[in-house]
Amino acid sequence: MQAINHYSKAFKGLMRPLILSDLNELWQLDLRVFLDGEVYERETFRFLLTNPKVIARQIRSEYDEMAAFGIAQIEDTGQGHITAIGVAPEYRRRGLARLLLHEIERSLVARGISSIKLEVRANNDAAQQLYEQLGYITTQRMGKYYSNGDDGYSMVKLLETFD
Ligand SMILES: CC(C)(COP(=O)(O)OP(=O)(O)OC[C@H]1O[C@@H](n2cnc3c(N)ncnc32)[C@H](O)[C@@H]1OP(=O)(O)O)[C@@H](O)C(=O)NCCC(=O)NCCS
Fold first, then answer.
1. Least CB-packed of 4, 16, 57, 148 within 10 Å?
2. Which of 29, 92, 94, 120 to mutate to test the pocket of ligand 1 (most atoms within 8 A of CB)?
């Protein structure tokens, strides 16, 4: 468990793993985070939270509410894949997504993973700026990648491994 104390950004809380007993709270937060039809099914989260190839973290506020979550999978190719990052609207722009991504990347490196990929909607400027700031590079635009017809970008980052 990692304590978080961002005095400059008015956030106090902690980061800890997401586990199956968090499923209901995770799903409730997901419904508030993804408003444009890209919500994950509750059963998809159940699958993810019981899969040993998944790294799942949450940040809880000082009031013991789930403020943010991040989930990544290790694919059979050996590459990491960000499945979902979500921050409650009232806790945005406080560095929580950046913290989650750093922790996921650190956990992947600890498992010997050297690269990570993700997909992001072409119209999701906030997420694109977040990923670019953390060193992710756009490799491809994917026409009509999402079920509602939105285009997506594929992004990758090489992770620094321990020698
Ligand atoms: C995208 C999202 C995860 C960002 O979470 P966050 O905790 O607010 O992001 P952070 O505070 O860690 O921001 C880190 C950097 O990302 C960029 N960023 C984040 N939100 C931004 C926004 N709304 N506009 C522009 N840049 C933004 C900035 O560069 C920011 O650094 P700065 O605050 O020092 O300028 C959050 O807005 C969210 O949950 N959106 C809905 C779900 C989603 O789109 N998830 C990602 C796709 S799966």
1. 148
2. 92
pLDDT bracket for residue 163 (50, 70, 90): low
CA gap 7, 104 in Å, rounded: 23
pLDDT, residue 37, reads: 64
By alpha-carbon position, which residue is closest to atom 35 of ligand 1?
93
- Ligand 1 pocket residue status of 127, Cβ below 6 Å: yes
Q: Is 160 among the catalytic positions?
A: no
Report pTM.
0.95
Dmax of the chain from CA atoms?
44
Q: How far apart are the C-alpha atoms of 84 and 57, rounded to whole Å?
A: 11
Kindly report, residue by residue over 66-104, the tens digit of the pLDDT: 999 999 999 999 999 999 999 999 999 999 999 999 999
Reference 122, options 150, 81, 157; nearest CA is: 150
Place of tokens 């992947």: 108
Specify whether the CB–CB gap between 22 and 71 falls below 8 A: no
- Quick check: CB of 96 below 6 Å from ligand 1? yes
The highest-level CATH class for domain 2-158 is alpha beta
Which two structure tokens, joined as six digits, stand for 39?
């919500």
Answer yes or no: is the C-beta of 31 below 6 A from any ligand 1 atom.
Answer: no
